[in-house]
Specification:
The chain is of the alpha+beta class and about 90 residues long. The chain has a single domain (about 5-85), classed as Potassium Channel Kv1.1, Chain A (2-Layer Sandwich). The chain is built from 4 helices and 3 strands. The protein has helices spanning about 20-25, 25-35, 50-65, 70-85; strands at about 5-10, 15-20, 45. It has a 3-stranded mixed β-sheet with strand order 2-1-3. Strand 1 and strand 2 form a beta hairpin. It is globular, with a radius of gyration of 14 Å. The N and C termini lie far apart (about 35 Å). Belongs to the SKP1 family. Keywords: Ubl conjugation pathway. Pfam families: Skp1_POZ (PF03931).
Length: about 90
């Protein structure tokens, strides 16, 4: 079974691909996808989000989409480190 992919374009022109399930971890992105009815292989423009921020959002969403493979305690620890990381 193939997973639907969403292609995101940041305000500074960077492209990112993510599984739909990963993208829908973000409430804002999920609502935006519903509003514009993005299809597979469409570019979904995020005009107010830079490439640096979008890469962090996608990383965070990937971690939370795969919650079955990590304990809740480890996920909370990862979240705390992620927020404090000085990127």
């Amino acid at each position: 079974m193939s997973t639907k992919k969403i292609l995101f374009k940041s305000s500074d022109g960077h492209l990112f691909e993510a599984d739909e399930a990963v993208a829908r971890q973000s409430t804002t992105i999920s609502h935006s996808l519903e509003d514009c009815c993005a299809k597979a292989d469409d570019e979904f423009l995020l005009p107010n989000v830079s490439g640096n921020i979008l890469s962090l959002v996608i990383e965070y969403c990937k971690k939370h989409a795969d919650v079955g493979s990590i304990s809740e305690e480890d996920l909370k620890k990862w979240d705390a480190e992620f927020v404090l990381d000085d990127r």
